[in-house]
Amino acid sequence: MGSSPLDPKASLWNEIAVYLRHCREQRGLSGESLGRIIGASKSTVSKIETGKERLDAKQAHLLDVAWETGGHFERMVFFASIGHRPQWLADMKGFEQDSRLIGLLNRN
User: Fold this and answer.
1) How many CA atoms lie within 13 A of 29 on its CB side?
2) Is 50 contained in some domain?
3) SS3 (DSSP) at 92
4) Cα dist. 37→5, 21, 30, 64 in Å?
5) Does residue 2 sit within a domain?
6) Which of the ends of the chain has fewer CB neighbours closer than 10 A, N or C?
7) According to the model, what pLDDT value does residue 5 have?
């Protein structure tokens, strides 16, 4: 896999970009060839793979059909678009702690 400055663990959007590049390179495709699959220019493909633009639902669908992924890219784009974040559990624990504190303060 080619090097990427994006940290795929930082966000699902980064994971999509890094994984897209990996899959393209694994298939021996150029950015131009991938662009033909998703209806985009080579420049747009580059921007998606570097995280400057995001893969959209239509492009994800076209990829899934062409590469027979079973809907993997569509699901990743769906979850990324609704704001899935790896940090969500830690956020929930923080909210839980805050609510306990508020509960204790309200009792007094």
Assistant:
1) 21
2) yes
3) helix
4) 25, 14, 11, 10
5) no
6) C
7) 85
Q: What is the pLDDT of residue 1?
A: 45
- Is the residue at 6 inside a domain? no
* Percent of the chain residues past pLDDT 90, beyond the cut: 68
Residue showing tokens 């839980």: 96
Distance (Å, rounded) from C-alpha 28 to C-alpha 101? Answer: 56
Q: How many domains does the chain have?
A: 1
Cα(68)–Cα(3) distance, integer angstroms = 25
pLDDT under 50 in the chain at which residues?
A: 1-2
Does some domain include residue 30? yes
Q: Is residue 40 within 8 Å of 54, Cβ to Cβ?
A: no
Long-range (24+ apart) CB contacts under 8 A made by 59-62 are: 62/37, 62/38
Nearest to 95 by CA among 103, 84, 85: 103
In sequence order, what are the residues at sequence separation of 6 or more whose Cβ sits closer than 8 angstroms to the Cβ of residue 19?
A: 8, 76
CATH number at residue 55: 1.10.260.40
Rounded to two decimals, the pTM is 0.74
